């Protein structure tokens, strides 16, 4: 009798690995990105169906979710982080537009922009408040991939979404610097949503290292095969890395087949609304445009959809808080984004007095006809001037260098000097 050849164990392992790669590529477990090493065999046990060998890596097991956003495995517990914009001023934020003279399809300027902002990984609130007896760690080798999504109204009136993939650079601690290169109509849409509409979001797909517990079976010959087959094997994976809320799906003992722990790169999704987080005085001067060899703050959306034209550079300055409470003789402050001039609007105006007296004139036409004055006409002209307390102006000049708009430039404080000719 001819003896059948005994399969080489290494060949079987290679078949398992190749088949599992095909299983991942088929998208049947969308939380799996790739296999990162050979599968480890389960250690025989009478208590549980699948047990990792002692030499396994200290990483999470995807099926052992203790609660939403938490995983077990290794020596302790793991959590899937949330992400947040910097709660205080983001020193890296900038929205820099450049116009090089190219013309867009609608006849306006073609814009290109670079958006930079910072994120940090944070422990989810539900995880932070849960009792635990073992160390709690963030999932290992965590790397976020970011996409900026911006609502855009199309020419037919329907609302779609523009998506721009960004690059991510790790920063000290749990921080990340995200950079997005925008072009065309999405530049104006992003600017409007960052400063007025608040509809932009960050879609995050973060990856990390873990073990995927898998049951491998070979369909019986001659019986109907249910489900896809890869290299002659079928796979049942347990859990989804905490993506689905609820109780974890763990292997039940006993189940026929071969258990393997595949080291994998797994992913989980997060969404961070940007809203109007950057629509504050701290950030307004960091929205800039470079055109005609000059870089200056963006005045309004017209800077992006029209070629350079005359319009006011001034906006109300609110960084210093309640103006009338701090400087009683002043009513409002306006900031010239291009010139760097702070104009203090006084609470009242009065007739200007000089060493020569009041600046007032009276032009008259006198009718000296006997017994009547009906033909007399008088025209008075007064020169009015802002009545601002010099002490208030001195305080204002002392406070202005400390506002965010003064970063990297010298601001000048002045009073109104005339009427806008328009």
Global geometry: elongated
What is the helix fraction of residues, given as a range?
10-25%
Distance between the termini: 108 Å
- Strand fraction equals 35-45%
What would you call the structural class?
Answer: mainly beta
What is the number of beta strands?
27
Oligomer: single chain
Number of helices: 7
Mean pLDDT: 84
Largest sheet: 7 strands, antiparallel
Integer-rounded radius of gyration:
35 Å
Considering the chains and any ligands shown, give keywords for the structure.
13% helix; single chain; seven-stranded antiparallel beta sheet; 7 helices; 422 residues; elongated; mainly beta; seven-stranded mixed beta sheet
Structure description:
- With 422 residues, the chain is mainly beta.
- Helix content is 13%, strand content 38%.
- The chain has 7 helices and 27 strands.
- It has helices at residues 9-25, 125-128, 185-197, 281-284, 302-305, 323-326, 390-399, and strands spanning 32-35, 40-41, 70-71, 77-79, 82-85, 94-103, 109-122, 136-138, 143-153, 159-165, 167-171, 175-183, 201-217, 234-237, 258-273, 287-291, 294-297, 314-316, 330-336, 341-346, 349-351, 353-354, 357-358, 360-365, 377-382, 384-386, 412-414.
- The strands form 7 sheets. Strands 1, 2, 9, 10, 13, 14 and 15 form a 7-stranded antiparallel sheet that branches. Strands 5, 6, 7, 11, 12, 16 and 17 form a 7-stranded mixed sheet that branches.
- A hairpin with a 4-residue loop joins strand 19 (330-336) and strand 20.
């Amino acid at each position: 009798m001819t003896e059948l050849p005994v399969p080489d164990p290494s060949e079987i392992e290679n078949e398992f690995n190749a088949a599992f790669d095909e299983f991942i590529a088929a998208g049947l477990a969308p939380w799996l990105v790739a296999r990162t090493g050979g599968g480890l065999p389960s250690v025989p046990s009478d208590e549980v169906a699948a047990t990792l060998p002692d030499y396994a890596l200290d990483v999470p097991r995807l099926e052992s979710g203790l609660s939403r956003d938490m995983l077990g495995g290794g020596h302790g517990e793991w959590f899937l982080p949330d992400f947040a914009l910097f709660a205080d001023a983001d020193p890296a934020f900038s929205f820099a537009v450049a116009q090089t003279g190219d013309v867009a399809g609608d006849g306006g300027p073609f814009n290109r922009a670079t958006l930079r902002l910072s994120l940090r990984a944070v422990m989810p609130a539900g995880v932070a408040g849960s009792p635990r007896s073992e160390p709690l760690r963030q999932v290992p080798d965590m790397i976020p991939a970011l996409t900026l999504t911006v609502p855009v109204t199309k020419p037919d009136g329907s609302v779609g979404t523009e998506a721009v993939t960004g690059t991510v650079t790790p920063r000290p601690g749990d921080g990340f610097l995200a950079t997005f290169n925008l072009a065309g109509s999405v530049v104006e849409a992003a600017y409007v949503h960052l400063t007025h509409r608040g509809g932009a979001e960050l879609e995050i797909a973060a990856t990390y290292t873990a073990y995927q517990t898998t049951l491998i079976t070979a369909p019986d010959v001659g019986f109907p095969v249910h489900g896809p087959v890869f290299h002659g094997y079928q796979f049942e994976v347990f859990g989804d890395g905490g993506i689905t809320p609820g109780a974890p799906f763990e292997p039940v003992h006993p189940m026929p087949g071969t258990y393997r722990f595949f080291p994998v790169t797994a992913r989980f999704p997060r969404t961070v609304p940007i809203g109007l987080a950057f629509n504050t005085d701290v950030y307004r001067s960091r929205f800039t445009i470079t055109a005609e060899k000059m870089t200056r703050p963006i005045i309004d959306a017209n800077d992006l959809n029209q070629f350079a034209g005359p319009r006011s550079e001034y906006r109300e300055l609110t960084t210093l808080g309640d103006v009338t409470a701090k400087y009683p003789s002043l009513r409002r402050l306006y900031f010239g984004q291009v010139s760097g001039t702070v104009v203090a609007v006084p609470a009242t105006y009065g007739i200007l007095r000089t060493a020569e007296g009041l600046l007032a004139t009276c032009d008259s036409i006198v009718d000296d006809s006997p017994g009547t004055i009906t033909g007399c006409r008088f025209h008075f002209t007064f020169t009015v001037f802002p009545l601002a307390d010099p002490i208030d102006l001195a305080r204002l000049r002392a406070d202005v260098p400390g506002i965010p708009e003064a970063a990297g430039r010298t601001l000048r404080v002045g009073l109104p000097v005339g009427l806008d000719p328009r």
